[in-house]
Each structure stands twice: as C-alpha cells, then as structure tokens.
Q: What sequence folds into this?
C-alpha cells in the first residue's frame, strides 16, 4: 500500500509526484491548499484522502471518480457546499465535513449506505434531512455546534448508532423516535434550549453516558432516573434548585456531576449513591 503523508508542509498546490498515481492513502492536512485540480480524478487507487485544515472553498466534481474512497476528511476548510459527486462515493465509511460553513446537507447522502462515521459539527446547518435515516450502518454522528432547531423522526432508524452529539444547537425538543436508538451508548445534549426530554429515552438500555451540561433545566426530567444503564450523568451548569430522590434508583451510576448549580438542599439520594461508590461532584 502506498501511503503519502504531506501533513503540515505549507503546500499551496497539490505536488506533482510520480508515486501519487498509485497512492492508496494521501494525507494533506494542515497545509494552505486553496483548490484541488480536476486531475484529482486520476488518483483512482485512493482509499483515504485527508484534507483537513486547508483553505478550500470548493471541491471539484471530478472527486466523484475516486470510487475506491472509504475515508474522506474535508473538515476545517471554508466549504459552503459539497458537490453531489461526493454522495455517490458509495464505499465511504467515514466522512468529515466539520468546521466548514455548510448550511444544508443534501438528501442524496442516503446513498452512503456503508457510512459508519459522519461529522457535521461546527457548520451552519438548520436541519438534518429525513434521508439521514437511510444510513443504516452509521455508528457515530457529530452534529454539534450548528443551528439545528429540530431533529427528524427518521433519526430513530439509526439502530446501530452508538455516539450522538447534538450539543450547542437551539433545539427545543427531541423526537420520541430517539428511543429507538437501541445501540446508543453516549448522548451529548450540551447547551441546547431543551426544557424536557421524551419519555422514550427510558428505552435506551445501552446508554452509558448522558450529558445535559450548560442548559437551563430547572427540574430534572423524570425519565432520566429511569435510564437504568447510565454510568455517567453530567448535569453541570443548569438551574437546578432541587433534585429528585429517584436518582438513587440508577443502579449503575458511577459518576454524577452537579457542579455549577445552586441547589437549596440535597436529596438523600446523593448520600445513597456515594455509599455504594458513585462519585458525586458538587
């Protein structure tokens, strides 16, 4: 396998190297590339292409010729859109579009049936397409630091999803369908506009970590105390004055973070949790 690593070389253009033609892995992260030449299509053997941290504002349609690609990283550029050709790279298992200025994601992403990791974090997305539910192999989904106001019910079809980050979005509600994410182990909901959580969260029997940090909850949604698989519960920086005694009913909880709240009293539940070995941070 030909691996070419040109990370951090201050490159302003793709170099003309004879070994590029047979490269299977090409790493060009942290350079100063402003464009990719259409001739990128000639690198037919490429399986991994990393272009994070450049100055790209567009990707040529000819990238669609790289049909062997399984791993494509385009994060931390200045992309306002991506060509439809990317959605036809059906062998992709990881796609990084984070830290760009994308306002929409094409419904055509449904064609990426083998995709296991999708990073859409730090963009300007106001919605996710319903077609995201077609990504049946998806294991990791980053959608944090966008402008999302709601989440499509189709998200419930992602039954292999283990990690879901929705932090720092102005969402006010989650769909009941989120309770269908039967493989979910970590759910991050920091800095949202949520005031309640769907009852279906109690169905997430694989959930180990739930973060509600930096929200404005005044009362802990009762459903949280019924997610019996929880190991780590992060409630930092909310507006809790009191907490329910039912917290003691979380049998697997190992860490409860309550810092930066202003509790007027502590429930006996905290003492019970500590006695059985749970770390409670106040």
A:
């Amino acid at each position: 396998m030909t691996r070419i690593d040109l990370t951090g070389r201050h490159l302003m253009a793709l170099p003309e190297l004879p070994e590029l033609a047979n490269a299977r892995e090409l790493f060009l992260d942290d350079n100063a590339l402003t464009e990719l030449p259409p001739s990128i299509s000639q690198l037919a053997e490429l399986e991994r292409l990393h272009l994070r941290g450049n100055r790209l504002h567009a990707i040529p349609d000819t990238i669609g010729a790289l049909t062997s690609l399984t791993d494509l990283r385009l994060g931390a550029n200045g992309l306002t859109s991506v060509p439809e050709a990317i959605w036809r790279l059906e062998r992709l298992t990881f796609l990084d579009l984070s830290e760009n200025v994308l306002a929409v994601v094409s419904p055509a992403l449904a064609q990426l049936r083998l995709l296991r990791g999708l990073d859409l974090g730090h963009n300007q997305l106001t919605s996710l397409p319903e077609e995201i539910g077609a990504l049946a192999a998806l294991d990791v989904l980053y959608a944090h630091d966008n402008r999302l106001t709601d989440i499509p019910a189709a998200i419930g079809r992602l039954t292999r999803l283990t990690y879901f980050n929705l932090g720092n979005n102005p969402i006010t509600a989650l769909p009941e369908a989120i309770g269908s994410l039967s493989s979910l182990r970590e759910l991050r909901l920091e800095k949202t506009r949520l005031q309640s959580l769907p009852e279906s969260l109690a169905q997430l029997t694989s959930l180990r970590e739930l973060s509600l940090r930096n929200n404005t909850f005044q009362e802990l949604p009762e459903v949280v105390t019924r997610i019996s698989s929880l190991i780590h519960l992060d409630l930092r920086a909310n507006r809790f004055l009191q907490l329910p005694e039912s917290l003691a009913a979380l049998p697997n909880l190992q860490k409860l973070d309550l810092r930066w709240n202003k509790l007027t009293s502590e429930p006996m539940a905290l003492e019970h949790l500590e006695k059985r070995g749970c770390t409670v941070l106040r």
Observations:
- The CA atoms of residues 127 and 148 lie 5 Å apart.
